[in-house]
Amino acid sequence: MRTNYFLKTVLTGIVALLFVPFLKGINTGTVTTITYYSTTQKVDCKMNVYVPYGYDQEADTVNSYPVFYLIHGGGENYTHWVNSGNAKGTLDEFIAAGKAVPMILVMPDAKNLAADVFAKELINDIIPYIEKNYRVKADKDHRGVGGLSWGGLQAMEAGIYHYEMFGYLSVLSSGWFTNETATYNRAKAFLSAHGKDMEKSIRYLYFSEGTSTDIAYNNGMATLKVLRDSGLTVHYWEHPGGHQWSAWREDFRSFAPFLFRDTATKYVSLAFQGGIITNSTIMTHLDSVIAEPVKPVRYGYTFAGWYKDAACLDSFDFAHDTIKKNITLYAKWSINSYKISFNSNGGSAINDTIVANYNTLITAPIAPVKSGYVFDGWYTNGAFTKKWDFSKDRVPNTDITLVAKWVDIASVSVDKVNMMKIAVFPNPVKSVLQINNLHSDASVAIFGIDGKLMVTEKLKAPNGTINVEALPEGFYKVKISNASFEMNQNIVVKR
After folding, report:
1. Per residue in 155-177, is it b (16+ CB within 10 Å) or e — as a string?
2. Class of domain 337-409
3. Mean pLDDT over the full length of the chain
4. pTM for the complete prediction?
5. How confident is the model at residue 37 (pLDDT cuts 50, 70, 90)?
6. Do residues 316 and 327 touch, judged by C-beta distance below 8 A?
7. Gyration radius from the chain CA atoms
8. Which CATH number fits domain 2-261: 3.40.190.10, 3.20.20.100, 3.40.50.1820, 3.40.50.300?
9. Most buried among 147, 237, 315, 367, using CB within 10 Å?
C-alpha cells in the first residue's frame, strides 16, 4: 500500500498540467527556493517559501505573518505544490480578494522520509530556520501543517503527536495504514489519552479524500472514525478526482480560507453521514447563531435534520442554539421504502406488492402459471433484458414493477419420464440455451450426432445458461446429470 501511495502521487505529478491562472490586475506574492542544513539528515536540503505581496516592501517590515507548512506526496519534492498544486496562484487570488489571511507558505522537501523522521526534521530544523529568518508569528495559533498522501502521514505525525505546536492541520488523501497494527494502535491510544486536550488546542482540522476512488479511501475512513471517536471536530470534504492533483488543488482552495482567523472565529463541521459532500465547514463567531445550511442529499434516504451527536438524539436549533466552540453537526437520515409490484404478463394474478427499504433484498413471490407456457422469471422491464436475481439484486431508490417472462411450451423440452420437470429451452436454440428447475447442481455435456463431446459446463441450481454460439447449426444431444439423476435431451442449433 505504501508503494501505491508513492507511485500514484508520482504519476499524477508527471501528468498534471501546470495550473497557473492568469491573475490579471492583482498583486502577487513571491516564491523563493531556500537551502538550509538539516541536522536531522546531516545534509543540505531545499524548500520553497511563499511570502505574500508586500512582505518585502519597506512599509511592511514591522508586520509578522502566520505560517503554514505544506508537504508534498511520496516520490515528489518541494516544487510540486507550486507547479502542480497552484498553491501560489491560489493564495495570490484569495489574499487579494480578502478570502484568505495573508500568510507565509513553506513547502519543504520531505522526500519519502518516515513520518516520525520528518516530524523531527520539521520541528528541529525547518520551523527554527523559518522563525529565525522570516517575520512570523511564532505561536501555535499562527502555525499550521498539512500534506497529501505520504505527506499527509508526515503532517499527522507532527500535527497530532505535537498538537501543542500547531493550531491547524490538513490531511489530504491519506490515513494511517490499518494493516500496520503497531502504528494504528499507537495513534488510537494517543488520541484516546489526549483527544480532549487536542480538541481544546486545535483551531481547525481539515481531512479529505478524492471520493471512494482514492486509493487511500479505506485507510482514510478508518482514520476519520478514530479522529471523531476521540472527540475531535473534523471538517471532512471530498473532491472528485481520486488520488491526484485535480482533487488536491481543490482541497487547498477549500481549506485555505479557514486558516489563521482570529480566536473569536469558530468552525462548525457538517458530518453528512453518507450524504453527498459539497462543503463541510461553516465559519462563524463565538456566541453567534448560524443559518441552516442547504439540505444534503443521499440516495435512498430522506434528510431528517441536523443533530449535535452522531446517534442523532439531540437536535440542533438554528434559531436559538449559539456557537460556544468548534462543534460537529451530524445529518440524520431516514431510509426510504419503495413498492415492488409484479406484472404476471398474462399469467395468474400476483397480488403481493412488496414494500421494502432501499438497498435491501426481497423474497420472490409464488411463481405465476400460464397455460401453454413455462415461467422464466421476473424481469425489470418488458424488453426482458435484465432478469431480477432475488439473491443479489437490491431495492433501488424508486418504485419498480417486475414483469414475468414466459416461454412457449412448444420450445421447451421437459424430462417427463423422470418427472424432473427440468426445462431446456429454447429449442431450436440460436445462441444461449436456458436450463431451469434444477433441483441440485449438475454437469451439462453437449454431444454432436457423431458422439463427439462439444461443450461441458457445471451449472448451479436452480437455473443456468449454456452459450452455444460456437456450435455449428445441426442436431445435438444434451446430457444433464449428477450423482442422483441423468436427463438426456435432443436440441437443434439453428440461426
Report:
1. bbbbbbbebebbbbbbbbbbbbb
2. mainly beta
3. 91
4. 0.77
5. very high
6. no
7. 32
8. 3.40.50.1820
9. 147
- Kindly report, residue by residue over 182-238, the tens digit of the pLDDT: 999 999 999 999 999 999 999 999 999 999 999 999 999 999 999 999 999 999 999
Domain 413-493 matching CATH 2.60.40.3080: the answer reads: yes
Which residue type is seen at 315? S
What kind and span of H or E run contains 143? strand 143-148
Would you say 380 and 362 are in contact if contact means Cβ atoms under 8 Å apart?
no
pLDDT of residue 31: 98
Nearest-angstrom CA–CA distance, 180 and 325:
34
Same CATH topology for 2-261 and 337-409?
Answer: no
Within 39-100, strands assigned E span 43-51, 67-71
Spatial neighbors of 362 by CB under 8 A, at least 6 apart, are 340, 354, 356, 390, 395
**C-alpha distances out from residue 351 to 134, 196, 386, 402, 424, Å:** 78, 57, 22, 13, 29
Q: Which of 62, 64, 68 is nearest to 49 (CA)?
A: 68
> Could you tell me the residue ranges of all domains in the chain?
2-261, 277-335, 337-409, 413-493
C-alpha cell at 460: 448451479
Distance CA 100, CA 181 (A): 39
